[in-house]
Amino acid sequence: MSENNTVLKAMGIHRIFPSGMTELHVLKGVDFELKRGEVVSLLGSSGSGKSTLLHILAGLDTPTDGTVMWGDTNIFALKDRVRSYLRNANLGFIFQFHHLFPELTALENVMLPLLIGGSDKSEARKKAEGLLERFGLSDRAEHFPSQLSGGEAQRVAVARAIVSEPQILLADEPSGNLDSENKKILHGMLLDISAQFGTAILIATHNIELAMITQRILYLTDGRLSDRSPSGGIVV
Ligand SMILES: Nc1ncnc2c1ncn2[C@@H]1O[C@H](COP(=O)(O)OP(=O)(O)OP(=O)(O)O)[C@@H](O)[C@H]1O
Ligand SMILES: [Mg+2]
Question: Can you give the pTM of this predicted structure?
């Protein structure tokens, strides 16, 4: 980790997608820094590039230009295999739609990052069971994702994202498909995780209530990040 507690840093990120005969310049020089234990929300209209940016910060997509650092490590200078290994150890990702493996039970889904990281199976099971219990899912441990409600599946996805106690958690509209009760539960869980583990969290969201309880709100507008909304007020 850097001496100033920066766990994630992005510099000069550009992302250009081919679009028919032309190009779509989605990110136009994004600079971003996330410190240990910080919870930051990312607002921006649909199509502004929030998911694109999160995928790049997670090393799941490659920027057209720019640098992403996890701690002191320049992630795009690494071989794919090394980057995947580091991601599994250091970074959790919560997708808008839970992205659980359908052929694995809830418990197996949560155990997976630990097993990939080389943990002993009984240790992984113990840890995963502990998290499922904490999230009120003990009696759903043997359910497959298709046998879970949307809220349950998303809680399993959160458990899977944090089971390795990553320094960084990226969440892409994590409560977008939940009812207001489940939204509240999930938002509380994210803040608890940060408080307990010192996890730095970046949340892309359209949810103003969620944005208001984070420490910092950033806006993605015209391919750039700023801490001011385009209209002065809060815009989603
Ligand atoms: N693989 C791709 N190829 C071409 N264009 C893409 C690709 N991925 C995203 N885009 C385009 O880039 C723009 C940004 O997409 P992105 O999914 O990052 O937006 P978003 O801010 O996450 O939107 P939403 O709030 O609807 O989730 C969109 O116009 C989208 O069509
Ligand atoms: Mg998106």
Answer: 0.92
